[in-house]
Every structure is written in C-alpha cells, then in structure tokens.
C-alpha cells in the first residue's frame, strides 16, 4: 500500500481517474513564453537537477499531509526553456487536458515548488498524480496538478478547472481548522500561508 494511502490521503480526480499510465514514455510539453519550447521526455526530466523537499500538500477541503517529495525544481524547467521576461504565470495541464491550473512564476521559482514523482521514497502511483505532478506546498492543493502532460508559459492569467468553479485564483492558504493526516486526521488549526506546522 502506498504511504499516502496508509495516511488516508484522499484521491481527487475531478475529471475522472485516468487509469494506468506508463512512466517510461511519459513526456511533458513546455510551450508559450520562452526561447526554447520543447518536449521533455522522462530521460530529459531525469537529466535535470533533482531535489527532495519536506513539505505539505494542503487541500482547501481542509486536510494536510506532510512528507518528503522528490522531483525536479520548477525553476530548473524554467531555466532550461529560457523563460521570457514577460512570462507571469505557469499553467499546468493534467493528462487528457481537462484539468488545468496556473500559478505565478514567482511561486514556481520558490525552492519547494517541484514536478514531483515520489513521496517518502515511493514513486507516485496514478492515484496520487504519477508518474509526475506539480507539488506546490505554498498554495492550496488544487494548484498541485496531477499527472502533468503540458506546461504553458503565460503572459496573463487564465482561471483553471477549480478556479472557474469558485476556488480562488490566488490559491492562498487561509487560516482555519484542518485535519492533520500525519496525526490520524486530528483536527488542528492552521494560520494563513504555507502550512509549516500545526498549532
Ligand atoms: N488532474 C487533477 N489534479 C488535481 C486534482 C484533480 O481533481 N485532478 N485535484 C487537486 C486537489 S483539489 C488536491 S487537494 C490535490 C489532491 O491530491 P491527491 O489526490 O494526490 O491527494 O490534487 C490536486 N490536483
Ligand atoms: Mo483540494
């Protein structure tokens, strides 16, 4: 059983579960506001610098799960494609291109923003956005698009799947009660902003 399943992490696929996905021939197309758009194959992705960060995925439905997420810093992708100066948002597209969401480039460039493929040393399964997903611990979980197939570098903002349905465009984490999945789902209190620890 996956570590995330053991922690009772909910599995969200608003557009429908994609079924089984192949890691080896996975690729991510990067397009838009950059000098070197192109396709990153799985090998291309693994040739970039990798990183492991401790962080929380925190849902607007008020649960949070912490662990070590491993992947490629989004800043490395932005650097590899030579992002243009007028680029302001990075837009993720999930498998089947029904689910999308965008984050400001400043947040993509933060140290813990990753394209992540593992949690606590276990590769992410399709349930949790494998082979590779966005991990953006600074914002509500709906910004962490799962099973990413494309990244669009945008000069302007467009609301994504959940943003069009009423979730905030900024995705800023708001204070309030939250279930800590690492502590049996106990309800604790979180302040505004990235959830670093519970009170
Ligand atoms: N493609 C896709 N990505 C998605 C979602 C989704 O429904 N589809 N849900 C988002 C929401 S609201 C949250 S909180 C997290 C949950 O991640 P998990 O399903 O791995 O627990 O994924 C985000 N990424
Ligand atoms: Mo969520």
How would you characterize the overall build of this protein?
The protein has a single domain, classed as Oxidoreductase, molybdopterin-binding domain (Sulfite Oxidase, Chain A, domain 2, Alpha-Beta Complex). It is built from 4 helices and 12 strands; from the N terminus they run αββαββαββαββββββ. The strands form 2 sheets. Strands 3, 4, 7, 8, 9, 11 and 12 form a 7-stranded mixed β-sheet that branches. Strands 2-1-10-5-6 form a 5-stranded mixed β-sheet. The protein starts with a helix and ends in a 9-residue tail after the last strand. It is 11% helix and 35% strand. Bound molecules: the ligand Nc1nc2c(c(=O)[nH]1)N[C@H]1C(S)=C(S)[C@@H](COP(=O)(O)O)O[C@H]1N2 and molybdenum atom. The site of molybdenum atom has 6 residues, from loops.
CATH architecture: Alpha-Beta Complex
Helix content: 10-25%
- Report the uncertain regions: none
- CATH fold description: Sulfite Oxidase, Chain A, domain 2
N-to-C CA distance: 30 Å
Question: Largest sheet at a glance?
Answer: 7 strands, mixed
Oligomeric composition of the shown chains: single chain
| Rg of Cα set | 16 Å
Sheet-strand content, in percent, reads 25-35%
Give the topology string: H per helix, E per strand. HEEHEEHEEHEEEEEE
**Count of distinct strands:** 12
Basic shape: globular
Structural domain count: 1
Bound small molecules, which ones?
ligand MTE, molybdenum atom
Structural class by secondary-structure content = mainly beta
């Amino acid at each position: 059983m996956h570590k995330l399943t053991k922690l009772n992490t909910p599995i969200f696929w608003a557009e429908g579960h994609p079924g089984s996905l192949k890691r080896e021939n996975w690729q991510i197309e990067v397009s838009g506001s950059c000098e070197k758009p192109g396709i990153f194959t799985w090998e291309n992705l693994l040739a970039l610098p990798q990183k492991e960060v401790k962080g929380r995925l925190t849902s607007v439905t008020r649960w949070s799960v912490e662990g070590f997420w491993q992947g490629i810093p989004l800043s490395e992708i932005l650097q590899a494609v030579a992002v243009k100066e007028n680029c302001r948002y990075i837009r993720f597209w999930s498998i089947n291109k029904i689910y999308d969401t965008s984050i400001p480039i400043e947040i993509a460039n933060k140290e813990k923003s990753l394209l992540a493929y593992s949690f606590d040393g276990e590769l992410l399964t399709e349930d949790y956005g494998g082979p590779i997903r966005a991990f953006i611990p600074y914002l509500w979980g709906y910004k962490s698009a799962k099973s990413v197939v494309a990244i669009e570098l945008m000069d302007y903002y467009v609301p994504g799947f959940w943003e069009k349905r009423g979730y905030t465009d900024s995705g800023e984490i708001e204070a309030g009660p939250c279930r800590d999945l690492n502590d049996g789902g106990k309800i604790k209190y979180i302040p505004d902003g990235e959830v670093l620890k519970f009170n």
